[in-house]
Amino acid sequence: MHHLCTRDGSPLPYTLHGAGHPLIFVSAYGMTAAEWPKRMLSPLADRYRLVLYDHRGISGCANPAVPFSIPQAAEDLHDLIAGIGEATATIIGYSMGGMVALEHAIRYPDEVDRLILLNAHCGGVEAVPSEEWVQEEMAGEPDSIDAYLDRAGRLLMTDSFRRLHPDPSSWFPDAGEPVDAAVIRQQADALRQWTGVYPCLRDIQAKTLVISGDRDLVTPAENAGILAMAIPDAGAIMMEDGGHGIIFQYPEEIAGIISGFLKKGVHRMG
Which terminus of the chain has a lower count of CB atoms within 10 Å, N or C? Predict the structure, then answer.
């Protein structure tokens, strides 16, 4: 485990795996870096240098004068890239991490070689929201790992996938303890307050791939089309029977899609 400090003094723990062109993984709402599925990461680490880090506050320590927000998280990502000694990197953002990645790509276009957005949306009135009951459940605070896994299964995985894989430990083999409730509340507030980046999507210079699940309850699949149409050099892949947790449902497949995109830049709808 490595640590760096942002410009305002907040620590960002991070880990490095593999060697080669850097891929920086930006985590989702309520997620720690340790929860990225190893079955997705391992094939990529054979060819690339993977950088996984925790958002400010996840480690239990942050500057109280500078709260978490989507724009602030983009600044933290900028500090991370400089701190690990890279000029450019491929940014892979999942859910809320995709929103952070969009903010960063707009603010610091020269730092983004390629952009991969997993189950993300553009924010603002242009984004297609989830149903109200989903938003209410996402804002809840599970008080145990069992409650956390139960909620994650209902919101992130499709019913058909859960019937075929009834054991939650097979969905999230790398799940740890739930993130502190205060951090969850701060991230939930940040998501509600984010005004989005739709008007600036046309300014994104990086070749972009949008990956979504066709049955995503949290970030409805229509958002993938909005992003792919608005970003100049972008395409989308739709995962069949994919929920918001496509990286947990299809880790090896997602790794293969990412590898193909990085090697060839091929975009397809499917």
Answer: C
* Structure confidence at residue 20 (pLDDT): 96
Using CA atoms, how far apart are residues 131 and 252, in angstroms rounded to an integer? 29
What phi and psi values does residue 117 have, to the nearest 5 degrees? -115, 120
Domain ranges of the chain: 2-264
The C-alpha atoms of residue 256 and residue 113 are separated, in whole angstroms, by: 19
Residue with tokens 């340790």: 34
Give the CATH fold of the 2-264 domain.
Rossmann fold (3.40.50)
Over the chain (270 residues), the average pLDDT of each successive run of 10 is: 93 96 96 94 97 92 90 98 97 98 98 98 97 90 80 94 91 76 91 97 97 98 98 97 97 97 61
Least Cα distance to 155 among 180, 168, 142, 138 occurs for 138
Q: pTM of the predicted model, to two decimals? A: 0.94
Q: How far apart are the first and last CA of the chain?
A: 38
56 close to 85: Cβ distance less than 8 angstroms: no
